[in-house]
Amino acid sequence: MPTAQPPSAKPTLRERRRAAAVREILTAAEEHIDGAGPAALSLRAVARSLGMTVQALYHYFPSRDDLVTALITKAYDDLADAVGAAVDAAPDTTPPPRLVAAAEGYRTWAITHPERFQLLYGAPLRHYEAPVDGPTTQALRRMSAIFRRELFGGFTEAQLAAADTGDLSPSLRDHLHQLPPDAVGSLPPPAAALFLSAWGHLHGLVVLEVFGHTAFIGAHQAEIFRMAMGNLLKDVHGRIPAGRVPSLTGQYT
Predict the structure, then answer these.
(1) Of 69, 134, 169, 171, which one has the greatest count of Cβ atoms within 10 A?
(2) Are the CB atoms for 195 and 148 separated by under 8 Å?
(3) What is the pTM of this model?
(4) DSSP tag of 155
(5) Which residues have a Cβ under 8 Å from the Cβ of 232 and sit 6 or more positions away?
(6) If you classify domain 74-238 with CATH, what class do you get?
(7) What are the pLDDT digits (tens) for 108-166?
């Protein structure tokens, strides 16, 4: 008979208070970014808004970089939650396809939280370097995994390896092979190249909108985006050899 696992210890009062304080600091920092932009992030201003001293804030975040890392990680997690929720809410048998729903979830979060989106994808903060393979990287990979699943779900590895991408150079193939397995490196090189191209198209349209470069389209931006994502999906799937190929409505043909 298997041995019962001991129940997980409940957080202590001190741990709960610390977690609550961290959440409050992150919320205050997000509000500061929303009001003044990522570049103006100041530990002193965040502490002042909470009635704390900077020295007290350092007890929770020893440096500005620690706070920025926590903010970026939370933003990526919130963005991934929004993308995942959009996919979960998408119907299985009627348009839009789940990949388009994921893309629309990404767009909606970005235009709703433009300053936090700029923290992720705008001009890098001066003198900040994210920890190598740290929490910000892991959070980003969580989101990219959703898009990989919705773009390539239903295809075999052999189909993905035979995708039509033209002639990839040997050096590019080698580089794609060397990427971390939980990133696009888990895909055959042709599929990895398709994924990166699709991601650039999706993300580029969102960046243009967030930074106001497509304002001339007015209220039709959502329609243009949905059309572009549907065409993107058709193009990617059209480059993968036939088999059990998912259609735009999620059915297999």
Answers:
(1) 69
(2) yes
(3) 0.86
(4) -
(5) 198, 201, 202
(6) mainly alpha
(7) 999 999 999 999 998 888 888 888 878 888 888 888 999 999 999 889 999 999 999 98
